[in-house]
Write a structure and sequence with these properties.
Length: about 500
């Protein structure tokens, strides 16, 4: 394919027929890519190490081919196919041998988000234009902020859909025949890395964007903290109206300062302090907007109150920050403060996000299994100071020492889980030696949480909080963070059913 023809593929109505596209991976995202391309008339070959039965059955029905087998080297089927474009699922890291081969061969390499942007005009708004896009990333809080933003937009009368890394592929939202005014797109650092490869014709021009925060994560995938940071910063590229950033996180401010944006785009800050002009913040228990009003130098608009958020279970500091960020994005699209206030009264967090699963015998049990990295766990520990902290799992190459030295030192005790607990225990020995540490043997992974609950109940023995905030991924012992949280809640319920904290078997012994 000539570069000229490839550059012209920026519309659903362009000529995609016969385009040879290799799709790497057959997850939900990979299938959405194959389905879209088949509908456009492209010649589609999907390569995957494994495939769910339903996807494997549907591929030939939609007119795509499937090649199953190892991808630790470039497969012969791929080279024989001679793809003109390769679209990779986000799990394929930059150092993956197939990705390296694609780049060495000079073949166009896209992610699913770039394809979605190129064909975003399939369903148009009443004014004949495609939906606006709002982009959301950050080390933590992405999904909650995406859900919040979509909820606020709908409350303001806009047709909005949360999509992307939140679990609904962007291509499914773009192709929805109902159509939307705004797509609220959660982007992982993996998806952003692929957007960084885009040729000019494939670059996104979002209405607004936010990076909520930045802390080390996915370092193995990206290769370094700097590469991870650079991927996150791409969220602001070409923003047209509002670059929302976290005033309490210097890295996000620098991202905005360095970003190449459309002339006229504004920097909008948020934090838990008193806001300046062009900011959102908190004043005497009120969440206020000083960015999206005419007299922002001398006045502010009330969005909601901390008391109202507390009644809705939304008053943890990091959740308030997410609300301010979502409100800034919604206000950039004209949503009125009254609509924001009303929507927040009924909004509830998803499971496994600082979720109180039980209160019994003086103990509050909190499931924040979604805290899969140190930054997220630190937010949870600040929300529940003095808790018995359940910590550990797959650290993904991240050093936990700073977390233990800071927020971890305030814990009442630590219960350490995970197949490899050595690094976590060593961090406590070195940086928080006064915190009692209890180790749960990996042994039977099906019983891990039962043992956690027994130990934690014995530690508290009367009154306190037990907080599951692992600061690590779950895949060493569980199928997902949700599975980890479910097992924790089930173990708590079993403990309650036994009728008494005395059944915990007496006080445990520390490591």
């Amino acid at each position: 394919m000539s570069a000229e023809r490839l550059a012209g593929l920026t519309s659903w109505h362009a000529d995609w027929s016969g385009l040879r596209v290799a799709v790497l991976g057959l997850s939900m995202t990979g299938f959405s890519v194959a389905d879209t391309l088949a509908e456009l008339g492209a010649d589609v070959l999907v390569l995957s190490e494994s495939a769910e039965e339903e996807y494997a059955r549907l591929l030939p029905v939609i007119g795509a081919r499937l090649e199953l087998g190892p991808l630790d080297a470039v497969p012969e089927a791929l080279t024989a196919f001679a793809p003109e474009v390769v679209i990779a699922s986000p799990g394929f890291a930059p150092a993956h041998p197939v990705i390296r081969w694609v780049q060495d061969e000079g073949i166009a390499l896209w992610g699913d988000v770039e394809l979605a942007w190129r064909v975003r005009d399939k369903v148009l708004r009443a004014d004949g234009t495609p939906a606006d896009w709002v982009l959301i990333t950050g080390t933590n809080g992405k999904t909650t902020t995406t859900q919040l933003t979509a909820t606020l937009l709908v409350s303001g009368g806009l047709r909005a859909a949360p999509c992307g890394n939140i679990g609904v592929p962007v291509l499914d939202a773009v192709r929805d025949p109902v159509g939307f005014d705004v797509l609220v797109v959660e982007l992982s650092s993996h998806q952003l890395w692929y957007l960084g490869l885009s040729r000019p014709e494939g670059e996104l021009f979002p209405h607004a964007a936010v990076c909520l925060n930045l802390a080390d994560d996915h370092l193995v995938w990206h290769g370094s903290a700097q590469a991870y940071r650079d991927a996150k910063a791409l969220v602001y590229r070409n923003t047209r109206v509002a670059c929302v950033y976290n005033k309490a996180d210097e890295a996000t401010r620098r991202m905005v300062e360095e970003a190449e944006v459309v002339e006229g785009a504004r920097a909008i800050g948020f934090d838990l302090g008193i806001p300046g002009p062009s900011d959102l913040g908190v004043v005497e228990g009120l969440l206020v907007d000083r960015a999206f009003l005419d007299d922002r130098a001398r006045s502010a608009l009330e969005l909601t109150t901390v008391a109202d958020l507390e009644a809705a279970g939304l008053s943890a500091p990091h959740i308030v920050q997410n609300i301010l960020a979502a409100s800034a994005l919604a206000r950039s699209l004209g949503v009125e403060p009254e609509a924001i206030h009303g929507a927040l009264q009924s909004f509830r967090l998803d499971a496994h996000r600082i979720e109180v699963v039980a209160r019994h015998a003086g103990i509050t049990w909190v499931d924040d299994s979604k805290a899969t990295n140190p930054h997220a766990a630190a937010s949870s520990l600040r929300a529940y100071p003095g808790a018995v902290w359940v910590v550990g799992g797959d650290l993904k190459g991240v050093d936990i020492a700073d977390l233990v030295a800071d927020a971890g030192a305030t814990a009442r005790a630590a219960v350490v889980i995970g197949v490899d607990r050595t690094a976590v225990i060593a961090a406590f020995e070195r940086h928080a030696p006064t915190v009692p540490v209890f180790e749960v043997d990996a042994g039977d992974t099906g019983q891990v949480m039962n043992r956690v609950v027994e130990i934690a109940a014995g530690i508290v023995d009367g009154e306190g909080t037990v907080l599951l905030a692992p600061a690590a991924a779950s895949f060493d012992q569980f199928s997902s963070y949700a599975d980890r949280g479910h097992r924790f809640a089930e173990a708590v319920r079993e403990w309650i059913d036994r009728g008494s904290a005395d059944d915990a078997g007496g006080s445990p012994s520390a490591v």
